[in-house]
Amino acid sequence: MLASARHAFARAPCRAFSTTSTRAYDVAKLILIGRLGKDPEVRTTKSDKEYAAYTVATTNYPPPPPNPDGSRQEAGTTWHHVICFNPNQTNYLRTLQKGAQVYVEANFELRDPDPSAESSSGQAQRQIFLRHESIRVIRQAPSHNEAHE
Q: Is 101 within 8 Å of 35 (Cβ atoms)?
C-alpha cells in the first residue's frame, strides 16, 4: 500500500513557487502579534447575523531607518480591526479583555472605494477587511490589582 502511494507522489508534479495555474487557490493572510485595544464587542449585521469585532494594536519594530539628518522617528502603533463571524469563536472572544497579548491569524481583503460615495465618507476610501480565522492568547491582560501596584 505504501509503495503505491509513494509511486503516485513520485509522478505528481512538484514545483515550488510556481507561476502556473496549477495552484488550487491563492491566500492573503495576515498574522498579528499584539495587544487587544479594547474588549471584543458582539454586534449584529443588517440581516441579524451576530459577529464579534475586536481591535489589535501592534508596534513596528525595529523603528524606521534614520532620517538624512541622523534623527530617528519613534516606532508607530498600528490599529487593526478584525471581524469574526464564527459563533463558537464569538463566544470565546467575549471572554477576552483589553490588554491581552494575542496571536491572530486573519484573512485579508482589500476593497476598492465606492465611486458614488461622498469623498469624506469611509466608503470613498480603500478599505482593508480582516476576517478572523484563529486567535491564541499569549499573555492574559494584567488584572486591576497588578496594574495599580
A: yes
Q: Model pTM?
A: 0.69
User: How confident is the model over 9-31, as pLDDT tens digits?
Assistant: 555 555 555 555 655 677 788 99
Q: How far apart are CA 44 and CA 46, in angstroms?
A: 7
- The C-alpha cell at 106 is 486573519
**Longest CA pairwise span in the chain (Å):** 68
Alpha-carbon gap, residue 129 to 56, rounded angstroms: 13
Q: How far apart are CA 65 and CA 22, in angstroms?
A: 40
The closest of 92, 95, 122, 100 to 55, measured between CA atoms, is 100
**Mean pLDDT calculated for residue range 137-147:** 77
